[in-house]
Design brief:
28% of the residues lie in helices and 26% in strands. With 347 residues, it is α+β, with helices and mostly antiparallel strands. The protein folds into two domains: 139 residues, Rossmann fold; 182 residues, Tumour Suppressor Smad4, CATH 2.60.200.40. The protein has a six-stranded antiparallel β-sheet with strand order 8-7-18-15-10-11. Strands 14-13-12-9-16-17 form a six-stranded antiparallel β-sheet. A hairpin with a 2-residue loop joins strand 16 and strand 17. Helix 6 crosses helix 7. 43% of the residues are buried.
Amino acid sequence: MLVETGTDAAAAPAACPPPIARVALLSNPTASGNRALLPQIRAFCAEQRDIFHYEVERVDQIGTALRRIARVKPRVLVINGGDGTVQAALTEIHNGGHFGDDPPPVAVLPNGKTNLIAFDLGANGDPLETLERVLAIARSDLDRHIVERELIALSDGTGKGRTVLGMFLGGAGLADIMLYCRHHIYPLGLPNGVSHFLTFVAALVSILLGVGSGLFPKKPNPVEVSGVRRGRLQGRYAVLVVTTLERLILHGAMPGGGRERAGALQLIAVERRPAAVLRVIFGSLFGRLGKARFGGVHVERSDEIRIEAEHSSVILDGEIFEASRSRPIVLRRTGPVAFLRLFAPAA
């Protein structure tokens, strides 16, 4: 095993990468889970001859990392970081062309704050155990575990700005809730599960009581969503989700899933009304969301979605963007990308 870092060249090891590797591991040491776990991952990699481990400390080093990783021709590329690290790596893989027309399937370790992408691919346990599982799959029948997912391509619609790729976008009230958690709850140093529960309670109380300042997430600004089957959605939304994931943490299957449906981008918009929010909570818990119609809950699929607002944030896999009337957020589907699912489909 060879470890390389994305630090200055003078600080990087002088060794050359091996000619091939079954697994290439791209680690972000600054990810929350890596602060404690990375020494164990380094020790595990040191015992394996067919793992190439590259560490980056900043997002702008990911391009260099992938160029180096492409030289070892891995069967699987593993990303060890949060959803933001995954988003940056997917964007670089798509835009950088480092692997030509045949990039390796991507696996994700559950080592960030939310781990939505890792959860969708079946990695919801210990990151080190997940890495061991990935290595075992890479040494055996890889094809049975490869799945395809489209990605969300986010741009301002002009064709001039940069296009960013990801798999989960939260907007309207959900973006405000995510930012509330990031700025007010995470600094308390609580476990992720406790932090997310406190955020959920604060958000629910805010919606039920109609408050939105001080101790609670702020009230969302009105947004306008177009490109959906009904033509246009307008209003204040407690939740606005656009995703290509098939599984979410609240309840297993994503509503509206199934390849027989038209459109790869899956949209859930929940109006900021107590009754609508309670309906979506209970509908999700009992697996009815997307199967039955609920007042104030909109479930759609589309190939292109446009979000406009008077200054409303959206968050794509951890990165914040601002939607406005002059610069709307435009979301389009990409072609299929190969990922490694840790559970094989039933025979």
